[in-house]
Amino acid sequence: MKHIFLLLLTISIISCGDDDEYGTPLEYTICGNELLSEANRIDQSELLVSDWPSTLRSYVTTEFTGFGISTIHSYKDVEGSEFLLATMDNQGVLLFDGSSIFICGDESFSLVTGDEDIKYEDLPQNIRDYIETNYPNTTVYEAEFEEGKYEIELKDGTEICFDQNGNFLGEC
Q: CA-to-CA distance for 18 and 14, rounded, in angstroms?
């Protein structure tokens, strides 16, 4: 019993509730860094899209609406347990057990909050690249994710919008 308590304390899993683009609670468990550490992975390999488990894809589609899967890696930990690590299009990661049961995700999905500001460095890379290329003489004043899109206000007063995948939509 003492070992179980220490294990749970070490993993440091906390619960998080945010809003998705539809305004309903997006609840998930945030993984402790130990769970996502590459140092703990053995026999890691990337799965072909055709080998992605349908239960995992279905779970992501239902629970993480608006996010797509970029890659899925299969690996074992030092104790031989199998895991699946899904890297999402926002560069966030979701951890599943070998049976495609969701365990936890990193903090990337806390961006989907509706009213909280997003730090510039937390914006998807393609949005930052677009701003740096097309608005080189100004910087981001405020960034939010609302109603399924990123709304960016620049210091020069320009407001630009991007979809949830970071594609430019135009001025807001």
A: 13
